[in-house]
Design goal:
The chain is built from 12 helices and 21 strands. It is an alpha+beta fold. It folds into 3 domains: 142 residues, DNA methylase specificity domains (Adenine-n6-DNA-methyltransferase TaqI, Chain A, domain 2); 80 residues; 142 residues, DNA methylase specificity domains (Adenine-n6-DNA-methyltransferase TaqI, Chain A, domain 2, Alpha-Beta Complex). The protein is elongated.
């Protein structure tokens, strides 16, 4: 990769624009600045002599959960602790060499840290550029450490990493570009966290709390108390089944057939990984489920849910909820996944793995309002969930964009 800088030169009084090409050069990490391990006294975390003072003490976990910059910490050091250690300046790049290996962040506070972290203080390089250059190779570093007999990244290994770097001016511009990209990602993450907190608050306010039959916040026009019923009173709880895997005629591309591993963070499912035929459905205990069914995993991770957008079937790892028409709103019951999950985990049993039966799920007691209020609540949570999906997608796209630029803009 080359850096082009334009200069105005005059020859025979005729202005000419000439490009000077600066090739990138190889430099060891240790040539770009000073690398030093942190240090700390190994004493119990509740030791008042060493901890609970006025000085930030950074842990590897603090680095792992930070972004480009690190300004939060989980522990503090006393004056005595700092005397036994070192207080590093703002602008230091901290790099974890144990636990969360090869995570890094730039300090924006003065802080101390243990010997499981290495501090990098720049001499003739841009610290933001170096941070992203390290990010580009961090996965490789982690994979090498994981396959070695020594499960950490030591000072010598880090010092000998070779980067290909441009001039300090180009380093600054590249660092600035990625800083802007990271700031954009951080903005979307804050929006996402805000949506999650808003949803959590609505769940607390718009669903009755334990011992109550009326929520604290309601839509206008609704005032009736919620009624207690069994899940079986407002829905059918339907299990699944698996056709004989040795019979090719049972397997094909006609009917969606879901396994629990396919149910993740998505709201709706519209196509399964494997399909079964009409004959396979007929010759097994699998059941055709209608659109609007809330798939509920009943084993090997109880309580993952998704709404069917196209009719299909499941294997025996589900106890799916088929709402009765004019009795239960699909998104309303889906929005109460946390209650379904908690109940399933509480009543489930099994020696090999915990499993909740259809009979147990059907017997679950649940408070519900009239259908129009269910629908209004379901629509609110649907809107919040769709916004969360959108924010997640934007964050994933930005991370993919960043990864692509890391590959293209570094050598």
């Amino acid at each position: 990769m080359e850096c082009c800088q334009s200069l105005d030169l005059h020859y025979n009084k005729t202005p000419q624009k000439v490009k000077l090409i600066y090739a990138w050069e190889q430099r060891k990490f240790s040539e770009l600045g000073d690398l030093s391990r942190g240090k700390s006294r190994h004493r119990p975390r509740n030791d008042k002599i060493l901890y609970d003072g006025d000085y930030p003490f950074i842990q590897t976990g603090d680095v792992a959960k930070s972004g480009l910059y690190l300004d939060s910490f989980s522990q503090t050091y006393s004056e005595y602790g700092i005397q036994q250690s070192k207080l590093w300046d703002e602008g230091t790049l901290v790099i974890t060499i144990a636990a969360n290996i090869a995570e890094s962040a730039i300090l924006v506070i003065k802080a101390a840290f243990p010997d499981s972290i290495i501090g990098f203080e720049t001499k003739n390089s841009d610290v933001v550029f170096v941070k992203f250059a390290l990010d580009r190779v961090s996965d490789l570093l982690r994979s090498k450490v994981e396959t070695s007999s020594q499960a950490n990244l030591n000072h010598a290994k880090l010092s000998d990493i070779v980067f290909v770097v441009p001039t300090i001016t180009e380093q600054f511009h590249i660092g600035s570009f990625f800083r802007t990209l990271d700031n954009t990602i951080a903005i979307y993450k804050r929006k996402l966290n805000g949506l999650r907190e808003l949803k959590k608050a609505y769940l607390q306010q718009m669903l009755p709390q334990e011992g109550e039959v009326v929520p604290r916040v309601r839509f206008a026009g609704f005032s009736e108390p919620w009624r207690m019923c069994k899940l079986a009173d407002v829905a059918d709880v339907v299990g699944g089944g698996t056709p004989d895997t040795n019979t090719p005629d049972f397997w094909g591309s006609e009917i969606d057939w879901y396994a629990p591993a396919e149910i993740g963070e998505q709201i709706y499912v519209v196509g399964s990984q494997r399909k079964i035929t009409s004959l396979g459905l007929l010759k097994s205990s699998a059941t055709m489920l209608p659109v609007g069914t809330v798939l509920f995993t009943s084993r090997a991770g109880i309580g993952n849910t998704a709404i069917l957008k196209k009719e299909g079937a499941t294997n025996q790892g589900f106890q799916s909820i088929v709402p009765h028409k004019n009795e239960l709103d699909s998104y309303f019951i889906f929005s109460r996944t946390h209650e379904l999950k908690r109940y399933g985990e509480t009543v489930g049993a099994g020696s090999t793995f915990v499993e909740v039966s259809g009979k147990q799920m059907a017997a679950m007691s649940i408070l519900i309002p009239i259908l129009p209020e269910q629908t209004a609540i379901g629509q609110l949570f649907c809107t919040l969930d769709e916004q969360e999906v959108f924010q997640n997608k934007r964050i994933e796209q930005l991370h993919a964009l960043k990864k692509a630029y890391l590959q293209k803009m570094f050598i």
